[in-house]
Design a protein that fits this description.
The chain is mainly alpha-helical. The protein is 60% helix and 5% strand. The chain has 26 helices and 6 strands. It has helices spanning 5-23, 33-49, 56-85, 88-102, 106-111, 128-150, 152-172, 174-179, 185-195, 206-217, 237-252, 256-259, 262-272, 274-288, 303-325, 334-356, 361-368, 382-385, 408-423, 444-454, 465-480, 500-508, 519-535, 544-547, 571-576, 578-585, and strands at 391-395, 401-406, 427-431, 458-462, 487-490, 539-541. It starts with a helix and ends with a helix.
């Protein structure tokens, strides 16, 4: 394959889109489509560069020599930097990411979290998910290419099956559609299919430029990777469009006037270093803006911060490229790659307990709050194993069932709710969706259907105040009234402006004391919600007395935080609500 400067331009466009998305640049909220462009290019290049008489091992060795030196350096430097600047609850997350990265399985690790688009976890190695998908594709490539060369329809069948699976998972669990190779294989297959067909470079004028413009414009669509929607979700319509545009651009090529122009030459140089830039920019962004217990915050707060991040990223990119990536002798053989993975894993196992020893037991209790929470609503695999079900059973009992419907607030108390219900002889069910009665399709009709099927003794609602203001109460009344099912509103617990564990930690280490709230302030803030609920005939559970006497507590007598962020209760905090929940359930 001869050198194609236009492909480097495509790579430059892809990395610019991703970087602008990570920077939070206005208008580039769908810049993550740059990753889809990379996948198509990868499938194309692997096919074009493949030698038929080459064995799989030789292919793996070339890929390892190309990718792993800069990859391992990025992981090692990120781990080492995090050791010195993060608190243990955050460093443990970096350690876990390092283990998955060493196994080239970062996508599996992140699929066990909330979502690529969630900022709760501290993820300075989040961007390695796409490289893990690439490497998993490489494992299969020598076998797929043999089949594809002989039977072109087999490649089309693989692409079609993967796309159908991808779209199905967008409607079931978007994060698995995002992270997993089977749901991304169609993107690589588009590149492979184009590479196996004759090029159309004679048409590289207007049509090639139009394909490039489409690649740049489609990522301006307002997409949301958390939506279960085939138009505005991801990877769905937007991904299909940008991948087809990339395939067309690869097949047609670009006009020589563009490739040889000054902007074209600059873009090609950026494409040359795009791998190093991709590796460097995300850890720099996340580590530069690090705040203890603050999750992942890559966006610059001011111009000085932005300029500093750009400067550090430029230096890190240059070092990665000059030392590890530019053409010339390679530091890594396949054997050294395996050794590096082992060293990184060993270093992580040693560093995690070592870092914790720098802090006292009181800080240790605060750090533990970040893990003292209820996870994954109905379980990690529930959506996949039961795609049609909208409720999951969280406890069984002989006296019938009760429903807990709500947003993330209800997720944080569901275990305490289920155990309390069980102690009174009731089974409990919980909404699978993150925002029932809020998201499209899960309206009063949906809840009425679930009530008819389950015949619960009561429906409990637990939402943030802002979500309850959007017609949720009225929808619940409409759904429950025909069956004369009582509806009980659990008022939200006191919430704070600051992250509670972060404030507790910082106040012990010279930071400002956390702003307190009182029972009177809480009741003033929730009086309208309470009055509105009462006007609809709903019973109320006022949980504020569990926390406020009259000043509201944020930790228990042992120093354990009652919240894992500014508003959501830890398992310890949720147990404080159990007596008030039990008093209500006992009356059913």
């Amino acid at each position: 394959m001869g050198y194609r400067g236009d492909i480097q331009i495509f790579r430059a466009l892809a990395v610019i889109l991703v970087v602008l998305f990570h920077l939070g640049a206005p208008g580039f909220s769908s810049g993550f489509l740059g990753g889809d462009i990379f996948f198509v290019i990868s499938g194309y290049l692997m096919t074009k560069l493949h030698a038929e008489d080459d064995g799989a091992f030789a292919f793996y060795k070339r890929r390892a020599r190309r990718l792993l030196p800069a990859y391992a350096a990025t992981v090692a430097v990120t781990l080492g930097t995090a050791f010195f600047i993060t608190v243990p609850s955050d460093f443990v997350q970096v350690g876990e990411q390092t283990f998955f990265a060493a196994a080239l399985a970062a996508n599996f690790g992140f699929a066990l979290q909330n979502s690529y688009f969630s900022s709760f976890e501290f993820n300075p190695l989040l961007h390695l998910w796409s490289l893990a998908v690439e490497c998993q594709f490489y494992l299969l490539f020598p076998f797929i290419i043999k089949v594809a060369v002989r039977w072109r329809f087999a490649l089309a069948a693989i692409a079609f099956a993967s796309l159908v699976l991808c779209l199905a998972f967008v409607l079931i669990s978007p994060k698995y559609a995002f992270f997993m190779l089977p749901m991304r294989m169609w993107e690589f297959a588009i590149g492979m299919w184009v590479a196996l067909r004759p090029s159309r470079t004679s048409r590289a004028g207007r049509w090639g430029a139009m394909a490039l413009v489409a690649m740049a414009v489609i990522p301006l669509m307002p997409l949301n990777g958390k939506l279960r929607d085939l138009v505005f979700g991801h990877p769905a319509l937007g991904a299909v469009m940008v991948c087809l545009a990339t395939g067309a651009a690869l097949m047609i090529g670009q006009p020589a006037t563009l490739v040889n122009s000054a902007p074209g030459r600059v873009a090609q140089r950026l494409g040359n270093i795009s791998y190093s830039l991709y590796l460097a920019h995300w850890p720099v962004l996340v580590l530069f803006h690090y705040q203890p217990f603050g999750g992942t915050t890559p966006h610059a707060l001011n111009i000085i911060d932005a300029a500093s991040v750009i400067a550090v990223t430029a230096v890190a990119t240059a070092l990665l490229y000059l030392v590890f990536e530019r053409p010339g002798p390679r530091l890594f053989s396949a054997r050294r790659a395996v050794l590096a993975a082992a060293v990184l894993s060993l270093a992580t196992a040693i560093l995690m307990p070592l870092q914790l020893r720098q802090f006292d037991a009181i800080d240790g209790v605060t750090f533990a709050a970040m893990k003292d929470r209820s996870y994954n609503r109905c379980g990690k695999a529930f959506r996949i194993l039961h795609p049609q079900q909208q409720l999951c059973e969280t406890g069984a009992g002989p006296r019938g069932n009760i429903l807990l419907i709500g947003d993330s607030f209800s997720d944080s108390i569901k275990e305490a709710f289920a155990s309390t219900a069980k102690s009174h002889g009731f089974g409990s069910y919980f909404a699978v969706d993150n925002q029932p009665l809020i998201t499209r399709g899960l309206d009063a009709t949906w809840l009425a259907g679930e009530i008819r099927d389950l015949r619960p003794k009561a429906v409990y609602l637990h939402y943030t105040a802002e979500h309850l203001a959007d017609g949720v109460l009225e929808a619940a009344k409409e759904a429950a009234a025909p069956s004369h099912i009582p509806v009980i509103v659990i008022l939200p617990p006191p919430t704070y402006v600051q992250n509670v564990p972060q404030s507790i930690y910082l106040s012990r280490h010279g930071g400002p004391a956390m702003a307190a709230t009182t029972l009177a302030k809480y009741h003033s803030a929730t009086k309208d919600l309470a009055a509105r609920s009462a006007a609809l005939g709903f019973h109320l559970i006022d949980v504020a007395p569990a926390f406020c006497d009259p000043v509201c507590a944020v930790k228990d007598s042992a120093g354990r935080p009652l919240y894992f962020d500014r508003a959501h209760l830890t398992l310890v905090g949720a147990e404080w609500m159990a007596p008030w929940l039990g008093s209500s359930i006992a009356k059913l």
